[in-house]
């Protein structure tokens, strides 16, 4: 596939992305330049970010992302989440297995340390 077939109206797409970056830059610069209250600056930044998001959503990549987000939301709804009891039981099993493995590795380390100490003659 060529890049032209993947992104229709690539000239217009570039203009849209430049507009998005200009709006976001205006939000950042305006936040530092204008001496407004914190609430007014926060509202202005949020509004500019929303406007930039809407413009980005009109691009090919933006539409693709929105479609992906919708499909991901649909898939998350299909997930069967464990109950609280299943979660607690699984957590306990994992903790017990971790402690057992920790004890086994600690014992193996102690045995190997003594073995290497004996073989090298170093009293570690």
Provide a quick synopsis of the model.
Helices cover 84% and strands 0% of the residues. It is mainly α.
How would you describe the overall organization of this protein?
The structure is a single chain. With 124 residues, the chain is mainly alpha-helical. It is 84% helix and 0% strand. The chain has five helices and no strands. Helix 2 (10-33) packs antiparallel against helix 3. It is elongated, with a radius of gyration of 29 Å.
Q: Characterize the main sheet.
A: none
The computed structural class is mainly alpha
Mean pLDDT: 89
Order of helices and strands: HHHHH
Distance between the termini: 65 Å
**Rg, Å, rounded:** 29 Å
Which secondary structure elements does this structure contain, and how are they paired or packed?
Elements: H1 3-6, H2 10-33, H3 38-57, H4 60-78, H5 84-120
Helix pairs in contact: 2-3
List keywords for this structure.
mainly alpha, 5 helices, 0% strand, elongated, disordered N terminus
């Amino acid at each position: 596939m060529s890049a032209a077939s993947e992104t229709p109206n690539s000239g217009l797409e570039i203009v849209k992305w430049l507009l998005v970056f200009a709006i976001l830059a205006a939000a950042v610069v305006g936040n530092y330049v204008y001496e407004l209250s914190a609430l007014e600056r926060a509202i202005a930044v949020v509004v500019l970010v929303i406007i930039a998001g809407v413009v980005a959503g009109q691009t090919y990549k933006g539409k693709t992302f929105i479609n992906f987000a919708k499909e991901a939301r649909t898939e998350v709804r299909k997930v069967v989440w464990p109950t609280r009891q299943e979660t607690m039981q699984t957590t306990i099993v994992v903790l017990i297995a971790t402690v057992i493995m920790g004890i086994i590795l600690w014992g193996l380390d102690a045995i190997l340390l003594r073995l290497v100490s004996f073989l090298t003659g170093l009293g570690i």
